[in-house]
Design goal:
Shape of chain A: elongated
Strand content of chain B: under 5%
Structural class of chain A: mainly alpha
Shape of chain B: elongated
Structural class of chain B: mainly alpha
Oligomer: heterodimer
Number of helices of chain A: 5
Helix content of chain B: 40-55%
Radius of gyration of chain A: 22 Å
Largest sheet of chain A: none
Chain lengths: 111, 176
């Protein structure tokens, strides 16, 4: 039994076992992280997702889930998909501008 | 897609079919999960869970729900395809693409200046409007295979399928 409960077990008001799947990734010092993830995904779903992953990839998975959950809390309609949309639009605009600038460059090079 | 909130289908919506329950009139899922798209709800259920999606939708205005469901479905599919990084992999890839294009643009502008044509191209056009920081720490070397749902596997060279509503929608909040 973990003498100090992880943030997940503290949130779920349960004892934190030694092999708690959450404890490596949800330290008690950061309660908000699990609260956010739990709100969007639910503890059961996160536990299932982590169990299906190799141990060495779980930390990254938790960080990305945490990021997406926070995006969804901040923007309940679009979540992190709003960021993707913004970036795609920005890429389109920049590509257009780049093409124009390179064309201008070619023209000025030829004159 | 049905615009009313009542179930006008004879067959249950994909959600109720998946959950093996009767699809009642006023089913919150019915307008957004037609029976012809079973995978859409299956993915959303796998990642978010039906009750979480219900809660999310109940907190939104009716006119916001379709976009919310579509973005949830997008995220869920991305997470199913990439269980470690999900959508964040795509964000990371797109950010690198923006930075690369910005470098190219800076170089092209420098060339213009060199050829005696000063450009008044504002650099703020390429400033990141949104800084999705902090991103999760990426392992080095980065996984190069970031793919959006619908993009071909392993190319990494395309930002994949553009979002169906990528036409200047207003993003709510979004400040990280």
């Amino acid at each position: 039994m973990n003498p100090k409960r992880c943030a997940a077990c503290k949130y779920l008001r349960r004892k934190c076992p030694k092999d708690c799947i959450f404890s490596p990734y949800f330290p008690p010092s950061d309660p908000h992280k699990f609260a956010c993830i739990h709100r969007i995904y639910g503890a059961g779903n996160v536990s299932k997702m982590l169990q299906q992953l190799p141990v060495q990839t779980r930390a990254e998975a938790v960080e990305s889930l945490s990021f997406e959950a926070k995006c969804r809390v901040d923007d309940p309609v679009y979540g992190c998909v709003g960021i993707i949309s913004l970036l795609q639009t920005q890429i389109q605009k920049t590509q257009t501008l780049l093409a124009k600038t390179q064309a201008d460059c070619c023209c000025s090079n030829q004159t | 897609m049905a615009s009313s909130s009542s179930n006008t289908y004879n067959s249950p919506c994909a959600a109720c079919k998946f959950l093996r329950r009767k699809c009642m009139p006023g089913c919150i899922f019915a307008p957004y999960f037609p029976p012809e798209e079973p995978h859409k709800f299956a993915n959303v259920h796998k990642i978010f869970g039906a009750s979480n999606v219900t809660k999310l939708l109940n907190e939104l205005l009716p006119h916001q729900r379709e976009d919310a469901v579509n973005s949830l479905a997008y995220e869920a599919e991305a997470r199913v395809r990439d269980p470690v990084y999900g959508c964040v992999g795509a964000i990371s890839y797109l950010q690198r693409q923006v930075h690369r294009l910005q470098k190219d643009l800076d170089a092209a502008n420098a060339d213009l200046v060199h050829y005696g044509l000063s450009t008044s191209t504002p650099s703020n056009v390429v400033d990141l409007v949104f800084q999705p920081q902090p991103l999760p720490q990426q392992p080095q070397p980065l996984n190069p295979v970031y793919r959006l749902p619908g993009a071909s596997r392993g190319t990494g060279g395309s930002c994949g399928t553009f979002l169906p509503w990528n036409n200047g929608h207003n993003q709510q909040g979004g400040n990280m």
